[in-house]
Amino acid sequence: MKIWLLSFSLFVSFVMYAESPKTEIRAVWLTTIYGLDWPSREAKTEAEYKRQQKELIDILDRLQEANFNMVFLQVRLRGDVIYRSEIEPASKVFSGRYGTRPSYDPLAFAIEECHKRGMECHAWFVTFPVGTNRMVREQGDASIVKRHPEYCRFHNGEWYIDPGVPEARDYIRSLARELVEAYDIDGLHLDYVRYPDKADTFPDRPTFRKYGNNKSRDQWRRDNVTALVTDIHDDIKQIKPWVQFSSAPLGKYSRIPRVPNAGWTAYETVFQDAQKWMELGKQDMIAPMMYYLDDDFFPFVDNWVENANGRHVIAGLGAYRLMRNEADWTLNDITDQIDYSRYFGMTGAAFFRAKNVLDNTKGIYDELKNNYYKYPAVLPPLTWLSDSVPSSPEEILVTREGNTLHLSWEAPEDAESVISYTVYYSRADTVSTQNAKNILVTGIRGTSFTLPVQKDEEQEYSFSITSSNKYRIESQPSRETYYYLSRYEK
């Protein structure tokens, strides 16, 4: 193993700052519980709600500047939600009181603002934990613990929905259906879809006696979680087949042969069989929480990729571990992980948390913006959901007004299937659409774009545009348009 890691270190020395991939997922987990990432303060007045909105705009602007293209927004926290639900109470993080909705819809606002910036917005949904005793008291009669005590178990200082109760799983399914039906989310992302820590003492023996069906308790527990994942997947694909379904399992799947003493694992410790979910085709993407170093990271990248079944697997990277009061990692610890996961088959990375990235902890934001994410990246296609390729955009028109070039184009004939466009450009007489450095902008949900230029510059430009459908399948490039920028307006 040491020889293998040494080989990787030598490999990294050659690939660092190599040309960025054209296609890649670049995500953050944006945490709302306790206002950790957003919002920083609760609001009582309309002006304070506007401040909350401005806060999110600033966060998304900075993510856009660093070419991030996906946000996991925490929408269900601990039996409370940040969206308009008829099933569970509004979180208190925006208004200061459970059950009191802010004057705006935080999820609808976030979706709109993400889409303006060419980013996808995935609803991050905490599955089984439903709060401490204090949270349950504050939620009052609206708490799931009060409404359906038969679904809930108290364990290790917190309440959980019991995954072994079929009606409890149906309750979670109803929340997922409500969310997918009501909002234009790009994906539903399950977190904590597993048994809790110290699961040996989780008080589900009566449930097991009733529903165990002669299985071992370990396998019964795995089957309970897999049943919920399967049902939610099938519900989503019936309602909106293009909505992606993903999860964040523990970073170490099981005690694999290369690391037989892996310790805390998804499969053995918390009964989370995420590789089975991919084998069954019930996940479009997984983001294992790989907040470890060395032998607890690199072999598990290989293990996840080898068992991906063609689905997208992205490395969940612990940006918070850079903090001195956490693990005091070096920046190279994170960049080595990006290098390895990028070049050995993962489809991208997600960072926990957004604030640790945006605070530029140990220079991580600058490193991503200036090196690893220097150019935009197109999101990878969901080819197992559709093989329909949209038509190319029609003629590109380029006009100049002062220090701005205005690009506009005609939507293709099958415009109803198209949701976004990618603009490629080069400062030459032709443009390659295979090179990331030629991506001017991606994820545009309109048919125009403006490019700042120097007014007295003499420069040639070539432009080409592709369209993408809801399954992120990209069309062939449009016919190129050549424009010569002169100091004299044409």
Description of the structure:
- The chain is 31% helix and 21% strand.
- The chain has 2 domains: 371 residues, Alpha-Beta Barrel (TIM Barrel); 90 residues, Immunoglobulins (Immunoglobulin-like, Sandwich).
- With 490 residues, the chain is α/β, with parallel strands linked by helices.
- The longest helix has 23 residues.
- It has 15 helices and 18 strands.
- The strands form 4 sheets. An 8-stranded parallel barrel has the order 1-2-3-7-8-9-10-11, surrounded by 4 helices.
- The radius of gyration is 24 Å and the shape is globular.
Question: Which short descriptors sum up this protein?
Answer:
alpha/beta; disordered N terminus; four-stranded antiparallel sheet; Immunoglobulin-like; 15 helices
Please list the strands of the largest sheet in the order they lie side by side: 1-2-3-7-8-9-10-11
Share in helix:
25-40%
Q: Give the number of helices.
A: 15
Using the alpha-carbon principal axes, give the shape: globular
| Rg value | 24 Å
Task: Name the CATH superfamily assignment of the largest domain.
Answer: Glycosidases
